[in-house]
Amino acid sequence: MSSSSSCSRLLCGNRELDLSRAQIMGILNVTPDSFSDGGRFNQRDAALRHVEQMVADGAALIDVGGESTRPGAVPVPVEQELERVVPMVEAIASQFDVVISVDTSSPEVMTASAAAGAGLINDVRALEREGALEAARATGLPVCLMHRQGEPDSMQLAPRYASVLDEVNAYLQARVEVCEGAGIARERLVLDPGFGFGKSLEHNLQLFARLSDLRPQGLPVLVGVSRKSMIGQVLDRPVDQRLYGSLALAALAVDAGAGIIRVHDVAATRDVVCYGASGASGPAVTTFIIRVSPWKNAILEPMAFVGVSVMRRLRLSSCSSLVGLLGLLFGITVPVESLSARTHGSPAICSSRRWRQGCRRRVPRFSCLAHAYPCDCLFDAYLYG
């Protein structure tokens, strides 16, 4: 997933988005049934206050959705989607200097939203719905094409792939070719691998570990994993306790080259994205509070190699940094014996009986002192970069 100079800037209506660095897309669901915040912002005043806060926190885009696409969701009538979305787009466009994205598959909503001030079409069905291709072309707006397997009401029942990366790449390549054939210029296209849309936990993690291999290359990539079940399944956390997992995935996605990160928690994500972009170097002390849960080697081991890239990007020289980063996401002790990172200093010190044996077995000597307190859920690691 490499960015080309021709795709480093995305013209979104009357605004231009600089994708030479990762941009944050704040989520605004004006629905009663979205998986994370359904019903919280389906009133105009509450929604606009939320938009104001997200823009102040650093969101470059606001993604407005009037139809839930969570697993098990059923479609809403297009008239109802129009009533939810278009007035909100008009209000945001008149009050805030921000790119407005519309999360829709309906051609009628695309057309009306573009006229109301939207700057991006974000379609989970990749313009497959009848009339969507023509409507998107007529708006002149950029389009995010997402991969999915099945429809929201049934997509998570039994997803299957021979190779999830190959099939996602083949689908996205085909949709790009269809769009170009219909007159939508390549420089107007953004790709989304569709985490959680017709994919099991194993599929999601395999795909995330190979995010830099997403095709076709040269197009911007949007990653949306904020608070999703892939985090909850690994960490055994409910939807309102998935912030740290979401942040760690955001850091990994940016390191893999993602241009847009779609999130619920804008301020915290901005801190992660800005720190990664700063190229911070030199001695650093970072404190993570991470969840302790079993390491799943067969599924998650590729993530360790992605984590090394993040460590290098942040110029943190010790394996303690890697342990902290992946621990923050998965609550694991990383098997760093196989990684080409410098290890030195003091061994890990673990006071919890449950983890003492595991730490001694799996973690070589590295520059950190880690104290695992005798409880089931917290591990406090003081990491010296």
Net shape: globular
Helix content: 25-40%
Measured distance between first and last alpha carbons: 28 Å
* Count of individual beta strands: 13
- Tally the helices: 12
Strand proportion, as a percent range, falls in 15-25%
Average per-residue pLDDT, rounded, comes to 74
Please trace the helix and strand order, writing H or E for each element.
EEEHEHEHEHEHEHEHHEHEHHHEE
Spatial sequence of strands, sheet with the most strands? 8-7-6-5-4-3-10-9
Runs in which pLDDT lies below 50 for 5 or more consecutive residues are 2-6, 279-385
What kind of oligomer do you see? single chain
Radius of gyration (CA) equals 21 Å
Secondary-structure-based class equals alpha/beta
Major sheet description: 8 strands, parallel
Question: How would you characterize this protein structure?
Answer:
It is built from 12 helices and 13 strands. The chain has 385 residues and is α/β, with parallel strands linked by helices.
Q: What distinguishing features does this structure have?
A:
about 375 residues; alpha/beta; eight-stranded parallel beta sheet; three-stranded antiparallel beta sheet; 13 strands; globular; disordered N terminus; disordered C terminus
Concise account of the structure shown:
The protein is of the alpha/beta class and 385 residues long. It contains twelve helices and 13 strands. Helix 3 packs parallel to helix 4 (132-139), helix 8 (243-255) runs parallel beside helix 9 (266-278) and helix 8 (243-255) crosses helix 11.
